[in-house]
Amino acid sequence: MKKPFTLLDDFGKEDGEPPHLRRNKIVSLLKEKFDFENSHLHSPTGKDKGILSKCFGYFAPEQAKELGIYPYFKEIQEIDGCHVVIDGKEAISVSTNNYLGLAQEPRVIAAARDALEKFGIGCTGSRFLNGTFNLHKILERELSSFLDREDAIVMSTGFQANQGTISCLLGRRDIAFSDRENHASIYEGCSVAQGKTVRYHHNDMDHLEYYLKKHSDVEGKIIITDSVFSMSGDIANLPAIVKLAKDHGASVMVDEAHGLGVLGEHGKGVGSYYSLEDEIDVYMGTFSKSLGSIGGFISAKSEIVEFIRHKASAFIFTAALPPASVAGVIAGLEIMINEPERINQLRENTAYIKRGFFDMGFQVNNNSIPIVPIQIGEEALTLYLNRLLFDDGIFAGVAVSPVVPPLNAMIRTSYTSVHNQNDLDKVLGSFKRLGLKLGILPKE
Ligand SMILES: Cc1ncc(COP(=O)(O)O)c(C=O)c1O
Predict the structure, then answer these.
(1) This prediction's pTM
(2) Is 133 in the pocket of ligand 1 (CB under 6 A)?
(3) Per annotation, catalytic residue among 258, 268, 419, 432
(4) 192, 200, 198, 140: which is closest to 166 by C-alpha?
(5) Quick count: other Cβ atoms within 10 Å of Cβ 54?
(6) What whole-number percentage of the chain has pLDDT above 70?
(7) Which of 230, 234, 297 has the most ligand 1 atoms within 8 A of CB, as the residue to mutate?
(8) Do the Cβ atoms of 163 and 192 come closer than 8 Å?
(9) Which of 183, 262, 283 to mutate to test the pocket of ligand 1 (most atoms within 8 A of CB)?
(10) How do strand 175-179 and strand 89-93 relate by DSSP bridges?
(11) Catalytic residue of the set 95, 144, 185, 230
(12) Per-residue confidence (pLDDT) for residue 403, from 0 to 100
């Protein structure tokens, strides 16, 4: 039989002690068990020699596992929409990007199965040489038509779409202006590229303008932003970005990973949300969130897409997206367009959960993005709460340093159109009970 989880055997009853004192006591007790700030999943900084020595001195994950607070790589044994089985235990997942419930949609599965039977499990080659199937071209046409853009290019992951595109567009004399909260794949693209990158403070248009002015002598400029920031759930200030881009002769690239299927008409993304579709020069999207699968794409004017098609090494030198995934995305896209009730339900669920968290006393972003980070602060408390949530049947994700600044650790929750009222109430109920127990929430 499994040992019960007893990291803190007892930290006393809630007996009138003020919440902040209770919280501090729990954090101290946790820190006695584990050096969170200095050990947790960070590489050792010891002076060991040899390139591999860092691996052999890296004990933090193992220690966190022993304490029962390790939050990563949980093995999902069963999944249906937002319901999962992990370690034989049923849980509601609020750690999902399956915003429209398409990952397990029967019509999507049927389309994928047909393609699997017709074409096999993979393309065994790059799109460039021998891995382009007619399905890829169909999907590219559907995406261009959905977004009303000239062309599109389907890549094997969203990460590669960003990395490959930025690294080939950003030439030696060019400069990218990138939001500091942009996704890691944008960072990677910029660092692989020959051109220079400056990072403006998150969503800070004054800072962006400052940099644009500072580099006014550079001809080739591109502003790159996530449309929806994956940790905070913030929406990019596209109107201001577009204005600055026009004023300073810059192009605009938007990563719609979390905007597609969520924002705008039929989920077309932030451009549609602000009625600025035509102002986005390079539209990047993924199939791994609202479309429930894997893969990424770029959509733009045909000359731009044609250039990327022949220049992006992350596209050329990797195997093509498998037929079943492509067919599943084609089916999913059709459902997304023809069943707007999914997006409506997602928005209703988002509004409901945000209202619930807000009423409890948590700070939430007042927008329609289904990413709802719950700010906790200390890493120790966040990992502990995450474990208690899991014991309570809630599977959530955590974001700790260096993904977020130290002392800004959070439980990152996200929602879908297939969470039902009971699921949402259960999530809110667990956060409330545990928030009070740990002194995170003020007493009622
Ligand atoms: C904003 C953003 N861009 C790009 C990606 C990469 O996409 P994919 O996971 O489809 O490779 C992600 C995924 O986490 C993301 O959140």
Answers:
(1) 0.94
(2) no
(3) 258
(4) 192
(5) 13
(6) 95
(7) 230
(8) yes
(9) 183
(10) unpaired
(11) 230
(12) 84
Predicted confidence at residue 46, as pLDDT, reads: 56
Residue 8 lies in a domain: no
The confidence band for 212, taking pLDDT boundaries of 50, 70 and 90, is: very high
Domain hosting 85: range is 19-99+341-437
Query: How is residue 126 annotated by DSSP?
Result: B
Domain count, the chain: 2
Check whether residue 150 and residue 117 sit in a common domain: yes
Is residue 316 located within the same domain as residue 231?
Answer: yes
d(C-alpha 283, C-alpha 58), whole Å: 40
**Whether 42 and 177 share a structural domain:** no
Q: Is the distance from the beta carbon of residue 162 to the nearest atom of ligand 1 less than 6 Å?
A: yes
419-438 per-position pLDDT tens digit = 999 999 999 999 999 999 99
**Ligand 1 pocket, residue 158 CB under 6 Å:** yes
301 shares its domain with 392: no
Are 112 and 86 part of one and the same domain? no
Active site residue 39: no
pLDDT tens readout for residues 69-120: 999 999 999 999 999 999 999 999 999 999 999 999 999 999 999 999 999 9
- The reply to whether 283 falls in a domain is yes
For 7-50, the pLDDT digits (tens) are 776 666 666 788 888 898 888 888 888 777 665 555 555 566 78
What burial class does residue 92 get, using C-beta atoms within 10 Å of its C-beta: 0-12 exposed, 13-18 middle, 19+ buried? buried
Q: Which residues pair with 292 in a beta bridge?
A: none
Residue 229 pLDDT greater than 80, yes or no: yes
Same domain flag for 324 and 350: no
User: Closest ligand 1 atom to the C-alpha of 229?
Assistant: 1
What is the average pLDDT across 209-236?
Answer: 97
- Closest ligand 1 atom to the C-alpha of 162? 4
